[in-house]
């Protein structure tokens, strides 16, 4: 945290401590560790532009209820942070670190993007393990984004006319 000075350094440390405590409270003995990486760890953190990057390691898979509680707390926590981009983190299982897998599977990922898109908690959790649900929700999201493109971004009419809703394939 050498690049963070004075008051900003104390404030950043305060939010790091709060983040670690959030995971201690929600994960208990399942929490192996919380590791700082990214710009803050490398000494080039800019409170006006950077996010705080964390890697949270769990001993075992998180329950859906634990994940929901973490999401709710992260949304509130993120809103309280003074840096523009807040926090970004992945929760991964310890077994993937001991026997490294690339790309490393994650239990949960959170970033500024997730906060802004406003995913419904029940749709967000479990989507990766349910192919039909994944197709349905990704289709909904694609249609939402196409609506956003059509309605709020000024683009040429030729592109708008070609932007069609995505249809869900029928699983056989």
From TrEMBL:
Pfam families linked to this entry: NTP_transf_2
Molecular function via GO: nucleotidyltransferase activity
Domain of life: Bacteria
Ranges where the Polymerase nucleotidyl transferase domain occurs: 25-77
Protein name: Polymerase nucleotidyl transferase domain-containing protein
